[in-house]
Protein 1
Amino acid sequence: MASVTKLRSRDLAALSEFAVSRPSTPEKAVTERRKYRTVWISDVHLGTRGCNAAMLIDFLDHVDSDTMYLVGDIIDGWQMKKKFYWPSTHNDILWRVLKRAKRGTRMVYIPGNHDEIFRQFTGLNFGGVEIRRQAIHETADGRRLLVLHGDEFDAITLSHRWLAHLGDAAYTAMMALNRWVAGFQRVFGLPYWSLSKYAKAKVKNAVEFIGRFEEIVAREAGARGVDGVVAGHIHTAEMREIDGVAYYNDGDWVEGCTALVEHYDGTMEILHWADEMAARSASGVAALAAA
Ligand SMILES: [Mn+2]
């Protein structure tokens, strides 16, 4: 297991210090926040220049929830191993996450492939953050949703189209192979290969790749007997019904800057934060002009 760098206790001690120190970006008043039953975010990629930290800080300062799921690729461990990049705004995000766990938000962290280093802590709780491999979320209207990152399906998503026409036995065998390939990559320290990057490099086929990922994830969720699934990983926010299974993807904070939320009646919505910020500054300008 040479590829998995074990976290040291002083790293964890450093993480817990965020809970007591002050953020460099002051936090806005908690009372002004819109409250949802549940919030899902993923693919933040802290530790990379791609992370849109300012926008995520703004989101966290305007939105609150009873439960929050961090659906993987929150910290980009692979990039940090190559080149250390950690501006104070990235601390400010961790500070806010730990702070809201302390204030009583149930915080569930499901590490993805870029932060798989945290998968070794599955089942543990750090400062009120539960680390899970996947979770079942029950909505206010009684639906059961499987919550997972989604890298579990990379190999099968990329295999040939004819797989879609095979029977369940072949599909199950393919899933086992997929897990084996992922394990092989880990054991031999091979660089993990990014599905979303590959899809984007082949722009012509990107739509097809994304569609295939969505179908496979929904199918797997259906096979497990749940009503729907929430994933991240492909950096493409979506909510649609696939063969009777509700498919949700919370998107990312690199390009799209989106979150998935559940209202108190169980209604689901994708928040596009760039649009929300633009609308807010437009109404601010209008208020100034009227004054
Ligand atoms: Mn991922």
Protein 2
Amino acid sequence: MKTSLLDILACPDCGSPLKLSVFEEFSGGGNDVREGLLLCEGCSEIHPVIEGIPRFVPNVFLRHPDFAKKYPQVAGASDEGTRRAFLKAHGSTQERFGFEWMNYPGPLPEDREVFLAETQVPAGDWKGKRVLDAGCGMGRYSRVAHELGAETVALDLSHALERLSDLARSSGRLHLVQGNLLSPPFRDKVFDIVYSVGVIHHTPSAREAFRKISRLARSGGTLSVWVYGAAGKFSDFRTNPLRPGRAGLKPVIFWVWLTVKIREFLSDVLRLFTVRIPGKLLYLLCYPLAFLGAVPGIRYLTFSAHPLWRVRLQENFDWLTPPYQSHHSKEELGRWFEEEGCEVVKVLPHGFVPKPGILGRKK
Ligand SMILES: [Zn+2]
């Protein structure tokens, strides 16, 4: 953790500034902290810096018991009640996505193109900007933002962001923070661009997560978010923005809507079971789906038709494993932007399955 990060960090519980105690720096110095402690000047809660990453998750010492043994002064961090409440609400999401993204076969050559298309922010607009990747997973898109010249802060609930550690150590422009989108450990209005690519629908409340991350963008700054689409009402669905290559769906849009509606129902029924299956067993069950994903005619019955089988494996798992998965219409997402004081600049076009995405500007 670069000490300069302190200028934008804040206590996730009360929003007060944090005081840093450095236990150990990385060799070579450069104000890059390997182990330390962040103390809230308001509520006195403490958060450790472990292996260069500030960790704002109450169960951190379950994964890092050696740190707690080495530094007894952290013993008072997060009482048992807080830890239990966190594990109940987020433990499964953290564990399942952590496992998924540690196994994801990336980064991939397509990441840059997908990232630019899905955030809708032009390639030339990243350089020199301070950017938040809200829910970075293993950091495939944080890498792209960093390559495009942004000072990038990658935030994730799981430990999968450790896959960015080497890059963060060698760059002065990449920061890793483990924390929760529902209580982001940052001061308000400190980012030029906040983006969240397919993440907030995996929190207990996508609306609340949207509210929390939208506050982090400065006035005049950019907020780009996409969420899983809902079939919703036909009157809304028929006006969804289609990609140019998918304009042929227009004359049969009613049948598309009906198919999406049925698909949504079947997926909800299936997920009643899959979210209860232990993560690693479910992962094994996704192997046959990954192979079926290459079979013409059948592939669209699975949850991924990606050309690489290892990506299909992850994408099937990604659909079936998360405890929370909410779906939203473009109208709903548009209302969220309006309610949080953001003007809608661009709407994301998509294909058969709706994918509400908006690029907005904070007023
Ligand atoms: Zn505090």
